[in-house]
Amino acid sequence: MTLFLSGGKFQLVQSKSSQSVSLEKRIIERIRSNGPITFAQYMEAALYDPEYGYYTSGKHRIGFDGDYFTSPSLSPAFGRTIAKLLPLADDSLKNPHPFHVLELGAGKGTTAERILEELKRGQPDLFNRAKYVCVERNRDTTPQWPIEWVDDVTGMKSLSGVVFSNEFFDALPVHRVVMRPGGLKEIMVTERDGKLGEIEADLTDPSLPGYFHEEGVVIADGQQAEVCLAARDWINKIGATLEHGLVVTIDYGYPAKELYAPYRRHGTLLAYHKHKIVEDAYQNIGEQDLTTHVDFTALARWGKDVGLEILAFTDQLRFFLNLGIHEVFAQMETEAASYSNYQTEVQAAKALIMPGGMGETFKVLVQYKGLDEAAIKKLRKKISSKYVLG
Description:
Layout: H1 18-34, E1 37-38, H2 39-48, H3 71-74, H4 77-82, H5 85-92, E2 99-104, H6 110-122, H7 124-129, E3 130-135, E4 147-150, E5 159-166, E6 175-180, E7 183-192, E8 195-201, H8 211-215, E9 224-227, H9 229-241, E10 242-254, H10 256-259, E11 270-273, E12 276-278, E13 289-291, E14 294-295, H11 296-305, E15 309-315, H12 316-323, H13 325-336, H14 342-350, H15 358-361, E16 362-369, H16 373-382
Parallel strand pairs: 2-3, 2-5, 3-4, 5-10, 10-14
Antiparallel strand pairs: 1-7, 6-7, 6-9, 7-8, 10-16, 11-12, 11-13, 15-16
């Protein structure tokens, strides 16, 4: 998930950790018993194995001593700005009780704490009606706020409020495919002489052949691409859970025609370790992050199937400016003026809207369900859209 890195190649030379070796052996044993696995199955194990997975092993992954930065880890301005959206949504929903905030991939609850802190300070009525639910199967802490922690949203029904995520969909397992003269093939993970490698095979999921046709894109001969069917499953869950409200997705990615353009011949799969790009996805297993760019066209298309319509598609820069991040900056400067490092804090906050950086790299898709026309028009006026999803 690291940003602001050059396109240069990095060579990382180090001995494998016992965790990496153990997880590799576990995956190899699985392949020897059952045959080659999809890359989605490999990625699921590498990131979410209950004992050795990258996100589930309990090791610190974010910050200078981790592998990457996230927007919430850079500055509290992220959560404080998101909090400004909630009163707008609450007003559009005519002040439901409770007002649900469902955060997917909440991590340690940093954003949740910031949002609730802002609501308590500036929107006490909404704070008292809010029911904040953090969806996180890899949590390692419980914030000192009225937050419910769950592993999944399955079974939740008829919620009114906001479903929110930041860098959630980019970490979901993906299928990898490649176009050949005879048609689309799937890149599978196999084992050769005790090492993991790749082979091409027939497609394993019946929905894969029609995926790109439905996206309106053509994959060039020899071009590799990723398809995140797990995102479809989550969109279906969200559609079944939310009765009235907004779905706000912040992540790095593109509309399908840009994501699958011919010049992205090798797809967007990346591995990160200690703030460096690692080209080998089968290195440091369980110790390096694996991530791909999000297909926002697919999120919108799948959303429409479950009643989620597009309200806006823009970038983080414009989204945050429209919500009033400048007010957050002014408040932070007032609060931090007595601290010796306040300039550093303010500069970190401004990185969230940096043109050419996080401000434009991160996209924001806002979908809605169950809102009347007046509410939709009012929200669209506040949350302007720069891009067109194709």
